[in-house]
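Exam review. A common question shows you a sequence with its structure tokens and asks you to describe the fold in words. Practice with the pair below. Do the first one on your own.
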Amino acid sequence: LDDDEHRQEFFQARATSEGKKAADIAERVLVEAGFDIVKSPVKIPKVGVQFNFLVEDTEGGQWYVDVSGAFTTVRPGLMRTDTLWKTLGRIHVLRRTDEPQNPSRVLVLTSNLPKSNSEGDKALRAVGADQVFDAVEMFDAAGLARLAAYAEGGAVLPIPGFWTEDDIERYEAATGSA
């Protein structure tokens, strides 16, 4: 192998290792919040997508969880535009398989959300709470509190945090949730 091939191999091994660490941290965060891990990873073969986790709240409600981004890159988590778009693509494909009476709920866990008002932030907010129920930074106390509340079960609406009150009102009006 030449130097370029060695560098590429090292890069791929490091990326895999970092991704695993992010998933390991996410699993711990989910369990500590009160979720039960149903399956990890979870594949949806009919549409060719995979999520890191399918979790269950205390009332038996199921949630897909996408763990996005690593912790040690220059632009960690969803600050990387390519990572953000891959996440949004997976969620969109999953949501196209939904039955109208049983929509999938998706939580996005990340090391870092996009900076406020950045292109990535605008794109993530543009999809709305019907696509991304909540986006949580794994070391943010307020985000972890929202996860714990969702794990208790019965969540019909997102809790303000990533989404604003106005975002949630628009979601409620569009979906008839209450």
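Now try the second one, then compare your answer with the model answer below.
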Amino acid sequence: MPVGLLAWLSSVSSKNTFSQVGTLFKTPMRKNIPVTTYSVKLASIIGILALAACQSASLVRVPEHRIQDTLPIYSQPSTDPEGPAFEAQEQFETKKKSRANTQEAATVPGVPPAPGDTPLVPRKSPHLEANKHKIGILLPLSGRQKLLGQELLDAAQIAVFDLADENFVIYPLDTKGTETGAAAAAEKAIRIGVDLILGPLLASSVRAVRPVASSVGVSVVAFSNSHEVAGDGVYILGFVPQQQVDAIVDYAVEEGLHRYAVLAPQDAYGQEVVAALKRAITVREGKIVRLEYYDPAATDFSQPAKAIADYDRRHKALLEHRAELKMRDDHVSKHTLKRLETLDTLGDVDFDAVLLPGRGQQLKAIASLLSFYDVDQPAVRLLGLSNWAQTANIEAEPSLNLSWYAAPPRDERENFFRRYREYYGRPPAAIASLAYDATALAIVLAQSQTGLAFSRKRLVQPYGFLGVDGLFRLRSEGIAERVFEIREVTRDGFRIKRPAMTTFPRIGG
């Protein structure tokens, strides 16, 4: 390992590796859950990344400063910290049971209904010191989305527990789920003097926050996936459709699939996926031969499925061919007619693959209908995006067997979700990982450099960060570039057809 990297690791490990989270942001950790120091995990992951980077296709040794630019931001605990900042097990167990038995949004223990007045700081720090890194996290902690906002805050809490030291202060601020509330929360964050804003969640809220933050040069790392709100100091961590479509189409083209159909919801998401597919196939010499939309609120998708399968024409062709064979009285015609009795259509469809951006029961229903209308795998491959990973028991739908979809790497995400359930007694929302990674990113940047820790140059790390959802890097245009693995649905779950990249290629090269 390069000397510079060793020095950098030493500087990190010499700090207090545990956050002694304060009175209003207690970390619910049970005594029987092991916790490890951040520095050990950091050293192991960076060593792996350094090795992977050195084994690039060009076989050119990666310069020291490039290796240091790739920072791991996910850490699993393995020893139990001590000190007054952590709740006793009895207190946590009581609160966990209470929270698990109520459907109402629960605040972090001790946090008042309107967070933001009191920071989340170590107990042993009676006042805020000048050298502390102040972070604001803007979430809908009241209103219709308060449950989701609370789960994001809980995820951020785990990141603080895993990685932060006493010089990291985070302020939860309630957006109330509205544009007005988001703007007010951002203004409050600026008055506090935050160095970085995490959140908000909705694209409309991000638009409201942008002018407030940009007026004082504070960057925003939002949880939205709308590319329309990215840029000018706003970075979105959400999974944008374009990168997922690029990943799955890239693999499909490699496998010889060049003609595409797409059956998408008639909404902004569906239109963005279709636009992404058009861009993806243009540079890969493919083409879209069929396109159908469906009402995302519908429960019957038979008409769009039937249309994209070209069922009426193919069924008519079968009937006509049967009639022609019946008019003949030879042995071959009779044998062919017998064989056609089990068919509903005649002739192949004019595409190699169908992209299905939906998920859940909707996805299963559409896939089943396509099979019913004689669009079967592997002759025609069904393709999906990362939201397929959120479809429970996807392997139980026979028509989805052998389908391919793009998804973030699984291991760290599953570890995070398991820990969240252990801490809070319930599963988190799928996007809770974004709050963990955003908070962890802020902590790692705060620990790795003082002064301009959250400058745009520092945020836009060319070799990225390792998080719960795998490797990612913030681009200058405000989009989080991510890596995806390609999975194939099997009867037992899935198999990985192509692993996700472990290092990013050089930007512009």
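Model answer, second protein: Residues 3-239+410-478 form a domain with the Rossmann fold fold (CATH 3.40.50.2300). The chain is about 40% helix and 15% strand. Full marks require stating both points clearly.
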